[in-house]
Design goal:
Layout lengths: L5 H9 L3 H8 L15 H8 L1 H24 L4 H16 L12 H11 L1 H18 L2 H19 L3 H17 L1 H9 L4
Helix pairs in contact: 1-4, 1-5, 2-4, 3-4, 4-5, 4-6, 5-6, 5-9, 6-7, 6-8, 7-8, 8-9
Length: 190
Amino acid sequence: MTEWLLVPAAYLLGSISSAIIVCRLMGLPDPRGEGSGNPGATNVMRIGGKKAAAITLLGDMLKGLIPVLVAQTLNVEPLILSGVVLAAFLGHLYPVFFGFAGGKGVATSFGVLLGANWMVGLAILLTWVSVYKLSKISSLSALVAASLAPLYIYFIMGMQALVYVSTLIVVILIWRHKGNIQRLLAGEES
């Protein structure tokens, strides 16, 4: 019964905005009011450079990875694990600590799926790198890699509940990246 407490704990950890905290600590402007207005690593790179972006990226990934690893260590049932995965991801998108206005979720989704299974994480990473080498477009690479995640989970883990949750994550990621997708289709995405 207490294992279900991992789900709200994952949401709360996911709600910690790495971008906002990194920008405050480094004396940078609030990423919600600068650049694209998105509190994520790409926007932090625009306003603060590579170091700030790398720290943000690592923070966003870890806040997805840590709660899932805790759940894995406790050997929770697949439904609870899937709930932890989704809660950490949604915490990043809709953070309770920052007015429910969060980032797009790419790094956090990678963190939760890496925590679910390192081979799934590796497959996603290799997909991202391969697409990026061909296209040189980060958002396209992220969307392709994320879109293949449910297949990787199905074939590597065979965990039905996580296949469904990862499919929902993909749908949300695509929706959150609709502006990027429109720019990709128009040939305007950097």
